[in-house]
Design a protein that fits this description.
The complex is a heterodimer of chains A (104) and B (212). Chain A has 104 residues and is mainly alpha-helical. Chain A has 2 helices and no strands. In chain A, helix 1 runs antiparallel to helix 2. Chain B folds into 2 domains: 8-120, no CATH class; 123-211. The chains are: A mainly alpha (104), B mainly alpha (212).
Chain lengths: 104, 212
């Protein structure tokens, strides 16, 4: 495998992994919303009063945890992979003799 | 002494009024031998054998009626005897604690209110909602598992394809941290699902109690 192919593979890897992680984050946020919606519906349909606070606590715990995990994935993984993607892309441009684009 | 059984003329009248159909499920009873004539207000609650207090039922619906207590029987009358064809202003008479009472539309409206309150205790609806919530969490767990495995797999693939070492090593570390965070999250979701299962059990018990 030549240098260009290897860089191309690395770039593809970065894009695919970034997509997977973004997809997971969206799913996590969506389930947190669905959790909250389920609790709202149970409240609206007069769920057993002594049991409802129990589920509300679970939902709140879930939301807090998911917020933390989503931030962690964005800050630690997506950002890192994005940085690598920029580097690899710049290397490919250089390899191909194309001009670099500066971020605004 | 008041009669408690419907006589043949009353039965014929009720049969004609309902056009031979079960007052509850609407089954055609024309060829049935075991036709039951039910006192809407039970005899033990002072109900008497008058046509206003009578409904013709199939055996299964009659059994179902006697599963209910007095209030529920009235609610069944209002909600389920769709084929009874009572007159709009019909009422039934009875005696409670030795005193004669008439159940008029006004009284029945009050029972409708009780019925509405009973509907608020919509345990089956609640059960469906918590089932759905548990299913949503299960789907999320599958997705998390799949993405964790993909992440791991992607690193292996790129390592085999000569990915830069200075890139692979930190990625391995990051992927390990990611797996561990996701594993913790899976554990928390398992706990939530277990708790939701307890709610399901409680609701199933309440549904069972309500049916009895």
């Amino acid at each position: 495998m030549n240098e260009e192919q290897s860089l191309g593979n690395q770039q593809g890897w970065c894009i695919t992994t970034q997509d997977h992680l973004n997809d997971l984050n969206m799913e996590l946020k969506s389930v947190a919303r669905q959790y909250q919606t389920s609790i709202d519906e149970l409240r609206q349909f007069k769920y057993i009063p002594e049991l409802l606070p129990h589920l509300e606590t679970l939902c709140s715990e879930f939301e807090t945890t998911i917020d933390g995990v989503v931030d962690y994935i964005e800050d630690e993984h997506v950002a890192y992979i994005y940085g690598r993607l920029q580097t690899v892309s710049a290397m490919i441009m250089e390899e191909l003799g194309l001009p670099k684009f500066e971020d605004e | 002494m008041e009669r408690n059984n419907f006589n043949n003329s009353q039965k014929t009248f009720i049969w004609s009024r309902q056009k031979g159909l079960c007052g509850s499920c609407g089954a055609d009873l024309s060829d049935e031998v075991d036709i039951e004539y039910h006192h809407v207000l039970n005899c033990k609650d002072g109900g008497v054998a008058i046509v206003e207090n009578g409904v013709m039922l199939c055996e299964a619906c009659h059994l179902h009626c006697h599963d209910n207590d007095f209030k529920k029987a009235l609610l069944v009358f209002r909600a389920e005897f769709k084929h009874a064809n009572w007159e709009e202003n019909s009422y039934y008479k009875g005696r409670k604690k030795g005193k004669e009472v008439e159940f008029t539309k006004k009284t029945l409206d009050e029972f409708d209110k009780i019925g509405e309150e009973m509907n608020n205790k919509n345990y089956e609806g609640h059960l469906q909602m918590v089932n759905q919530l548990k299913e949503t969490l299960t789907q999320l767990q599958k997705k998390m598992y799949s993405i964790t495995e993909t992440y791991k797999h992607q690193i292996n693939v790129m390592e085999n394809q000569g990915f830069m070492d200075n890139y692979i090593t930190p990625l391995r570390g990051k992927q390990g941290q990611f797996s561990s965070i996701i594993e913790n999250l899976q554990g928390m979701i398992d706990q939530h699902k277990q708790i939701i299962s307890l709610h399901e059990e409680k609701l199933e018990q309440l549904i069972k109690d309500a049916r009895n």
